[in-house]
Amino acid sequence: MSLTYRYIGHATHVFGINGATVLVDPFFTSNPVTDVSADDVDANYILLTHGHFDHIEDTVAIAHRTGAKVIANFEIVNWLKAQGVPEEQTHPQHIGGGFHHEFGYLKLTIAFHGSSLPDGSYGGMPAGILIDTKDDRRIYIAGDTSLFSDMQLYRGAELFIVPIGDNFTMGPDDALQAVKHVAPKDVVPCHYNTWAPIEQNGKAWAERVAREVPDTNVHPLSPGGILELI
Ligand code: NI
Ligand code: MN
Hints:
It is built from 5 helices and 14 strands. By secondary structure, the chain is an alpha/beta fold. The chain has a 7-stranded mixed beta sheet, with helices on one face. It has a 7-stranded mixed beta sheet with strand order 7-8-9-10-11-12-13. The site of nickel (II) ion (NI) has 5 residues, from loops.
C-alpha cells in the first residue's frame, strides 16, 4: 500500500493512491508556476473541487487523452458532458455524498466559495474533497474556501491540503486555525504565490504551524515538490 503526493503548483495536485493516479484540479496551460504541460500528465481519475478556470482549465483535454474518469459535482459533470467528455468517463456526486471508488471512499465536503464555470454557466456548490483510502488513510483537500468550524469534523486526516493565499480563500491566520481544527499528521499549503494578490511566505507560515501545532508535519513544497507518505 502506498501514498504519494506531488504539488504541481497553485491548487493542482497529483496523488498516487495504491497504484491509481488521482489528479486534482488540473490547471496547467495558464498556470504561471508550473512548466508541466497538460499533454504530459497521467491520470486515472480527475477530481474537481469547483468550476473556476484555475481548477478546471485542462480537464476536458486530459480526460480525452487519458480516458480518466472525472469526479465532480452534478452541475460540473453536466457541463463537462456538454463539452464532449463521454458520460461513461464521468461520475457525479454532491456535497455530503460519498462513493466507493477504486482508490477509496470519496466524499464531497462543504466549502465556502463560488463555482461558476469558465463560460459563466452555473457550476453548483464548490466543494472540498475527503478521501478514505482502502487502507484507511484519510486525505482532506479543503478546496478554495474560507475557514469554517465544521472542519473539526475531519479531524484526524493524515494529509491536509489547505489554501493560504488570502484574498480568494483563507489566508495564513485562518489556515493556521484550520490546521488546529483538523490536526493532521501532514499539511501542505497551496493556492498562494501564483499571482500578486495571493503572495504569501510559505516558509514563515510553516514555522508558525511548527511552533503552534507541533504534532503536525508541515511541508511548504515548491511547485513540483513531492511527498512520500510512509
Ligand atoms: Ni476558485
Ligand atoms: Mn482558485
